[in-house]
């Protein structure tokens, strides 16, 4: 599905995480509600949802939320060590 959703106008990206025990989460980001509707109503996506319910998932929860604010932090790499010649 990741290859398919990338072609949806307004799709911004996604994040995945999974525990060693198999609990997983996927978060998809869309520019607006119209982009999300395009994905939600895509025929191939709908068919995959039906197959997932029948074959893969015992249960799942879907949350749709609007991000009001987002913040991130990336630690800068330590500066290289400068070694002066001996003597």
UniProtKB/TrEMBL annotation:
InterPro entries: Dimeric_a/b-barrel, Jasmonate_Hydroxylase-like. Gene3D superfamilies: 3.30.70.100. PANTHER family: ABM DOMAIN-CONTAINING PROTEIN, BLL5343 PROTEIN. This is Antibiotic biosynthesis monooxygenase. It comes from Streptomyces ziwulingensis.
